[in-house]
Each structure stands twice: as C-alpha cells, then as structure tokens.
Amino acid sequence: MRKLDEETTASTADIRAVIPPERTQSSGLNLPTMLLGALCVLLAIIAIILAAVSMNRQNVFNLGPAQAATGGGNDGQAAGKTWLIMIGHDYGAHEYIDVEGNLAGYHHDLIREVCEAAGLNCRTVWDSYPNCWDSQAGQHGRGGQGLMNGWYDACTGWSRTRLRDGTFSFSKAFLPTHTASFYVRTGNPGNFNVDDVSGKKIVFLDGWVDDEKCLARQTSITGSVLPADKIVHVTDTDKFVEQINTGLADAGWAANTLIAQGYFNDTVLQLLPPTTPQKCMLDGSAMMTRKDNNFTTYWNQGFDKLVESGRFTRLCSEAARRYGRVGTVACLNP
C-alpha cells in the first residue's frame, strides 16, 4: 500500500519530470526535412523520364543497316514500317494520269510487285519531280527538298550520275540507260547543226539527267559548253515542246526516248541525234534514296525475287499490252 499511496500522491512536479514537455509547433519544415523531400521528388521525376524514353525507343525505326535483311525476307521493323515512294505523272507509259484522272503506269505495277515480294508495306506519294532532284539553268543540280527533308523514302525512276551519286543512294536499275539527242521543229526549218551549237539557245527539262552538263560532255560538238543566257529550263514536256515550236529556243536536248515513250510524236518534233553521242548515265533508272535510309536494301531483295521467278520479265510483257496506247516501256534484261 505504501507504493500505491506514493504513486497516488505524486506531485505535479514529479509528473512533469517523467513526461517531457511538448514541442512548440513550427510555422515551417526544418532544413533536413525539406532537402529530403526535394530529393525524393527529383528521383521520382528522373524515374518517370527514363521510363518514357525506354517506351519511346521501342517505336523508333532504326535507319541503320538491317542486320537481319539478308537471304530474303526482312526484319520486323522493315515489315512494320509504311514506306513512302514518290511518283510523278509525266514519264510516258511509266507514270501518267489516265482518262479518269487517276495516276497510272508501269512504275505503279513494279512498285506493287517488288514491295509484295520484299514483304514491305509501300504507299505511293505524288509530287513534283524537282522535289526529288532540282537543277537551275547554269547551276549544278542538287537534291530536291522532298527527298532531302524526308517527305518520302524514295523517288522512282531516277538514273545514277556522277553528281547524283555524291548525294543519294540507288537501287539496282530496272530500266536501261539511254543517250541524249536534240529535238527541233519537224522538218528542221532552222537548219540546226548537231555538230555545232555555237550561239544557239537550248531548252532542257529541269532535273533530268540530260541537262546542260550532259551536253557539255559531248566533246565532239562544237560550242557544247553553253553560256548562261543560252540555257533554258522548263518543268515539263509540254513547255519543252512549246519552247521549240514557238522559236523561243533553237532546239531541245533530252533523252532520245521521248518520242518512243509517248511524250509527243514525230509530227510535233523531230529527233536529231548527235553524230557520236556520249552517255551521261552511270546506270539505268532505279529507286533513289537518301544515304541514311536503307530502303534500297529491302527493295533489291524483292527485285531479285521478281527476276529469279521470271515475274519481272512477264511484268514488262504485260506493260506493253496495258500501256501500249500511251507509249513503250523500255524493259531491262537483268
């Protein structure tokens, strides 16, 4: 009972000695607590950023060499990507607009067949040809803004040249090479001399391989290096014909296949080939791409399958039947 009585009669002073005094409430957190909280928030933000980057990398298409793209077939990334292929409408039986206003021609058939053989999901995109390769009168040609800026993965039907080779990559050729020729009014009323073009104004198709640099390489032609005021560039074959027929230009210089391919007939313009023409092409028409795009790797796989199966030869034969009313398709014999 002694102990109980002592505990019962404990003084207020004794109780205060046992129970520590309450802390007074602070108006803010102390410095260590604040630093610890800030560190936790920072670590959480970093974790969120790293997770987002990791997820995003899974959806980025690798434009580097495709290690799995050998021996036929292609890697999963190539098959999952939609490949955009530029195509125009002023390329004879290869690319034109039909009577219903639709894009048509042999190149559409070729793209469909090659992409199917390669297992690629391809879509064609219409655009102006200078957006693939552009050239201004008297200037060196250069990569067009469309292909340079990645508007599409490839441009269809462009030939390798020394200048283009320094800018773009090319697939295997699917059309043969050709030489260039002069075009004049039917009957050559101006007595144009193919061996001497001194003082003559010549019209060229903008961006085409047969430009004024090609003419300058024709060492057998006197005056083949033209001054700037004798060079005219136009963007399509209609303007090319107009320049010649109206006398604004003495002659045109272009591929010797324009009449055969159906751009115009020999009642409109007359073809005058040089005496000893020199080719300006390193290879025939092909797919042209940026150097950091590996589309041609997959395209070549599909193209090889088409050739090996005999389908490429049959496709060319079918083109003569389907597009013969528009022009000829100069098939390559791989």
Summarize the structure.
The chain is an alpha/beta fold and 334 residues long. It contains 11 helices and 14 strands. Strand 5 and strand 6 form a beta hairpin.
Description:
The chain is α/β, with parallel strands linked by helices and 334 residues long. The protein is built from 11 helices and 14 strands. The strands form 4 sheets. It has a 5-stranded mixed beta sheet. Strands 11-10-12-9-13 form a 5-stranded mixed beta sheet. Helix 5 packs across helix 10. The termini are far apart. The N terminus is likely disordered.
The helix-strand sequence is HHHHEEEHEEEHEHEEEHEHEEEHH
Average pLDDT figure: 82
Give the fraction of residues assigned to helices. 25-40%
Structural class per helix/strand content?
Answer: alpha/beta
Count of individual beta strands:
14
Taking all Cα atoms into account, the compactness measure Rg is 36 Å
Distance N to C terminus: 118 Å
Helical segment count: 11
Largest sheet: 5 strands, mixed
Percent of residues in β-strands = 15-25%
Question: Which SSEs are present, and which pair or pack?
Answer:
Layout: H1 2-8, H2 12-18, H3 31-57, H4 76-80, E1 82-87, E2 96-97, E3 103-104, H5 106-118, E4 121-126, E5 133-134, E6 142-143, H6 145-148, E7 154-159, H7 162-165, E8 168-170, E9 180-185, E10 202-205, H8 212-216, E11 231-234, H9 237-245, E12 251-255, E13 269-272, E14 285-290, H10 295-309, H11 311-323
Parallel strand pairs: 1-4, 1-7, 10-11, 10-12
Antiparallel strand pairs: 2-3, 5-6, 7-14, 8-14, 9-12, 9-13
Helix pairs in contact: 5-10
